[in-house]
Amino acid sequence: MSRATAILAFGVSCGVMTGLLHALILKVTQVVFGQMIFVSRDFVWMAPVVYVGVMLPGVVALAVASLLTRWDGVYRLTVMSCLTVGVFGLLLPYPQISRLASLVLALGAAIQIGRIVGQAPESGIPLWRKGALAAAPTLALLALIVHVASVVRSQRARGDAAVAADAPNVLFIVFDTMRAASMGLYGAAENSTPRLQEWAEQGVTFDRAYSTAPWTLPSHGSMFTGRYGGETSGDWTTPINARDSTLAEVFGSRGYATGGFVANMHYTSHDSGLNRGFHTYSDYLRSPRQLLYSSSYTQTRLFAALQNARSIADVWSAVSHPDLSIEPKHRFDHKRGEDVTAEFLQWRDGIGSKPFFAFLNYMDAHKPYFAPDEFQRFTNQPQYSAAIAYLDSQVDRILADLSRDGILEQTVVVITSDHGELFDEHGLSGHAHNVYHNVLHVPLVLLAPGRIPAGIRVGDAVSLRDLAATVLHLANATESSVPGVSLAQQWLDTIPTSPVFSEVSRAPNVAASNPTALGPLHSLIDDSLHYITNSAGSEQLYSLRVDRTEMDNLAVQSEMFGELMRRRVLRDSLLAGRSDR
After folding, report:
1. Taking every pair of C-alpha atoms in the chain, what is the biggest distance, in angstroms?
2. What is the pLDDT of residues 270-292, one digit of tens each?
3. Region label for 233, one of left (φ > 0), alpha (ψ between -120 and 50) or beta (otherwise)
4. pTM of the complete model beyond 0.70
């Protein structure tokens, strides 16, 4: 074998080994430390492919050089270069190590390993030739293993329980980051939800529904288990715990087909814990873009800048000031609303007459907002409103399809959001790090023909914590005990519901301008007042009936002392009850 072939063989083998080591490191992080790793299950075969691609240009250049020169050191240079690139790539995700220190460590490791594997081609060829030849079938086998494991998990989860004759389907739709204030259904001047408004006339609309957390994972965990967000253990890097049964587990044990179709890969994907109990759980796409993102180098801000470059000047700006930092939560190929809709409808067509529990998570109203051109018609928060209008069309497509097939009349439908969004209120934008009204106030519509009345609006404040109990009540599964109170009678009579309690912990590396920078936040909402407090003892109190924008902090008024005390007692009682579990 020529030196050129040996060089190519070593480069391919080194790329494959780097990718497999990267996947192994992430798996250890997940299993040993119980942390989310924010990558696809396909990473185990995608990463080796991409690392080979990262190394290949340089390796090909060195192989060509070996054909044009008699220099014997070109093979050793290949070994050193590939090992340096591989080790440096494995160190990139760790910001605790400076880039310079990472490079020095990579060079040191390359020198030491190179002494073992960097011998002359005549003696070193057999090992790396075998590695290169084995690369393709190895990756194909890994991809097959991932697929088979997914099928096996699905089969094991199905169970053989008999389904009650009157068991309705359950469709649980969550619009990620859709605040009620920006929807025509809740009085927004520009109506971004005309179709949802029409469908809502067939069921019950809750005017004052509130999330238990201002961000995705604890909010979803709460809706699925009936626990408050802080009780689920779902946090910035940790999945929800397996202590409490999820809705999918309850319905799966009753013989339902269960399917989850999600677009938020950071906090609703397979490693979030929300996938428990689902026979089918579709998260990451298998696409060229998702493949491209499966390495440290293609996760850097430098790579993102080069991807977004629109001119030579943009390219020069990126490479002249290279930013090799990596976000802990990996970038992913975005799944659009129509993808989630299509996945669900295709799955539903494939399960026959079996009743189903389906969970759909749409991400288009989350930054970066997305909507096709035909929805770009708004002047107030134009991109966000367009995204809401696009999702309005998606829910219309689903409900119309189910109605046409005669399925909707046998289905309990929940339409809600996990949290809202701020647009410069209180000088803040986005969500997750505050508990102000527009981050917690979310839409909630229930449809269940023959089970609930039509055209009803409920004005009392309710918590999404009660959704699990409500869904089980409407599906005649009341023997399945979950915490919380069913909202199913709320439109007929005023009944006690769970306290409208929300909370958020301090995120890692949170900006000082965010309220959570001072510590965890807690929120209580009742018929008229919104109480906010943090661990530092700061308190805010707003009258939502006259001050929806929360500009007048009543906590500074001495005559409100009694109200503050009552809320402190309730907050402490809720937190104490949680800690006793």
Report:
1. 90
2. 999 999 999 999 999 999 999 99
3. left
4. yes
